[in-house]
Amino acid sequence: MERTKVVVVGGGFGGIAVAKQLRNAAFDLTIIDRQNHHLFQPLLYQVGTAGLSPANIAWPIRSIFRKQKNVRVVESIDVVGKVVHYNGGEEPYDVLVVATGMTHGWFGNSDWAEYAIGLKELSEATEIRNRILEEFERAETDGTEKISLVVIGGGPTGVEMAGSIAELARRILPDDFRSFDPEKTEIFLIEAGSRLLSGFHEELGARALSDLRKMGVTVLFGQPVTKIDADGLEMGDRRIDSRVVVWAAGVSGTPVGKWLNAPIDRQGRVLVDGHCQVPFMPDVYVIGDVAAFKADDGTMLPGVASVAIQQGEFVGRRILGTDGGTFVYHDPGSMATIGRSKAVVERGNLRLTGLMAWLAWLFVHLIKLMGSRNRVMVFIQWVYSYLSYQRGARLIFRSGRRE
């Protein structure tokens, strides 16, 4: 009897969760991803600010499933009929699961991508690190007295990035330079709305704002960015000169709707039913950030790792035939770190700030990180950074350069 062929597109949290659910099933499972690694995106900003090395937060997909013999891994994709076409071949399927995540949304200003850089992949994180460190090096050699670094977007990624840049400039780098004083660096966090961390309780957003301001971050509200160029940006009548602009403001769906010829929402996410299936496509599931899933209370589920993981586990059970119900999301809470001993945590009516929230953030991210080696290395690096006020990944790397 021919074995059921399951194809999972995307090796992120959702795709990995599906594959693990099917580890003992008599299925042929293929994972397709354009990268060869699973990336722990919640810590990507630490790579971008020299806190961690890329290898600390990534794990080869083949290594994850080296003992799961029903899995093979290929790299990306296009879907025609019941065949997935990818770079170098094609793969027929009986069941398709798409978990490709989101990409950057530029609010109709795609030309901004030439000057601002987002934070979704390792290559982007290392580019951010390069640009930030190169700004300090340039200031040291050309006599610049002050530089400006800008983060756009007041969600968790923007808050964490701004706080980490502030620690780098104020605590880590001052002793490294002789002509330039990194403590004079202007750090801007721009949020078009009226407050930070809009998905959190207002009290926690206010605490994050207070902490960032104490760290020397200038937070600007209520004025969307209207222009970004090679030398800075404009927001209303104000211009900020900066050669480092980090984009953490908007996201957009990957072209899954086009691949599947499926309905999408305004963000490009595929509309799915209560089973995480595309309407009128009973053998196609879409999960994680790229899925527009409406909860029982009418709200759309957020694009966070916990949603992707739970949906992946649910779809895996449905494929196995052990779960005939609809998907129900169990919110484990939300958290964001602002800096050393500074974080916010929210779970139901429980709200934590300060040191306790920071320790909770450290613990949760360590246990969720893929691979025991990575957990040990990240823990050691965090302890080292906490005790020494140093970051060991302050490397500028450009391919093709002569050293």
What does this structure look like?
The chain has ten helices and 25 strands. With 403 residues, it is α/β, with parallel strands linked by helices. The protein has two domains: 4-104 and 251-320, FAD/NAD(P)-binding domain (3-Layer(bba) Sandwich); 123-247, FAD/NAD(P)-binding domain. Helix 1 runs parallel beside helix 8. It is globular and about 70 Å long.
Observed structural traits:
alpha/beta, four-stranded parallel β-sheet, 2 domains, six-stranded mixed β-sheet, FAD/NAD(P)-binding domain, globular
Task: Give the topology.
Layout: E1 4-9, H1 13-21, E2 27-32, E3 37-39, H2 44-48, E4 58-60, H3 61-64, E5 71-74, E6 78-80, E7 83-86, E8 89-92, E9 95-98, E10 102-104, H4 122-142, E11 148-152, H5 156-172, E12 186-191, H6 202-214, E13 217-221, E14 227-229, E15 232-235, E16 238-241, E17 244-247, E18 251-253, H7 256-260, E19 270-271, E20 277-278, E21 281-286, E22 291-292, H8 305-320, E23 334-339, E24 342-347, E25 350-353, H9 354-368, H10 372-388
Parallel strand pairs: 1-2, 1-9, 2-5, 9-21, 11-12, 11-17, 12-13, 19-22
Antiparallel strand pairs: 3-4, 6-7, 7-8, 10-18, 14-15, 15-16, 20-21, 23-24, 24-25
- Proportion of helical residues: 25-40%
Relevant CATH superfamily of the largest domain: FAD/NAD(P)-binding domain
Share of β-strand residues: 25-35%
Q: What value does the Rg take, in angstroms?
A: 22 Å
Net shape: globular
Biggest sheet, in brief? 6 strands, mixed
CATH topology name of the largest domain, in short, is FAD/NAD(P)-binding domain
Number of domains: 2
Give the strand tally.
25
Mean pLDDT reading? 91
CATH architecture annotation name of the largest domain = 3-Layer(bba) Sandwich
Name of the level-1 CATH class of the largest domain: Alpha Beta
Poorly predicted regions: none
**Termini distance?**
59 Å
Tally of helical segments: 10
